[in-house]
Amino acid sequence: MSHKVFLAGVSLDRLMYLYKDESHPKAKIRLQCAILRKKDKTEAEISEVTNMPIQTVSDTLRRFEERGLQGRYSIKQKGQPQKLNPKQRIQLKRIIEKSPTEQDLPFAVWTSKLVQYIIKKKFKVGYVLRQIYNLMRSFGFSIQTPRPEHIKANKELQSEFKKNFDGELENLLKQDMRSSFWMKVSSH
């Protein structure tokens, strides 16, 4: 019974040389699979030696057949395309570099939910909060967590202070002080 020769144009010596020279761990294991196959080992035997599932061994060997020696490396996946184009990202960055009050919003600071709302309203694009976090980090902002309210805080004294509070700092009262908020990272 004749079967197709594995990597007919590549010698066992060449595979051994590449194996010794390879520094990437996954590529090295894939080359080991190719060497064992070149030595006429079955997929089950290769699986036993490399401790890889038989299906993974089969996929690895198939990639070598399809792509030649480049089969030892993974193909970089592009991932999901960005929801905001570069022009929209610049617009958003300009918006959040100013305070929410400068944008006619009744908030003192940017929260992730507020940024999410602005993106939905202005660009008609929905982002999950985790992606808002990534987006804000890419703009040079860091998340700030406010200090928790002190147990021994004098509520009556605070209430009296708020009654006599001047309107200049009214925005602070509008802010939910338990929410995390974004601050521009200072560069020093």
Order of helices and strands: HHHHHHHEHHE
Major sheet details: 2 strands, antiparallel
Number of strands: 2
Overall geometric form: elongated
SS field, number of helical segments: 9
Spatial strand order of the main sheet:
1-2
**Strand proportion:** under 5%
Kindly state the percentage of residues in helix.
40-55%
Give the oligomeric state of the chains in this entry, treating copies of one chain as homo and distinct chains as hetero.
single chain
Radius of gyration: 30 Å
Q: Uncertain segments of ≥5 residues (pLDDT<50)?
A: none
From the N-terminal CA to the C-terminal CA, the straight-line distance is 72 Å
Class from secondary-structure proportions:
mainly alpha
Number of domains: 2
Mean residue pLDDT:
85
What's this, in brief?
It contains nine helices and two strands; from the N terminus they run αααααααβααβ.
SSE blueprint and pairings:
Blueprint: H1 12-21, H2 25-38, H3 43-50, H4 54-67, H5 86-97, H6 112-123, H7 129-138, E1 141-144, H8 155-163, H9 170-174, E2 181-184
Antiparallel strand pairs: 1-2
Helix pairs in contact: 1-2, 2-3, 2-4, 3-4, 6-7
Description:
The structure is a single chain. The chain is mainly alpha-helical and 188 residues long. It has two domains: 12-72; 86-184. It is 50% helix and 4% strand. It has a two-stranded antiparallel sheet with strand order 1-2. The radius of gyration is 30 Å and the shape is elongated. The chain starts with 11 loop residues before the first helix and ends with a strand. The relative contact order is 0.09.
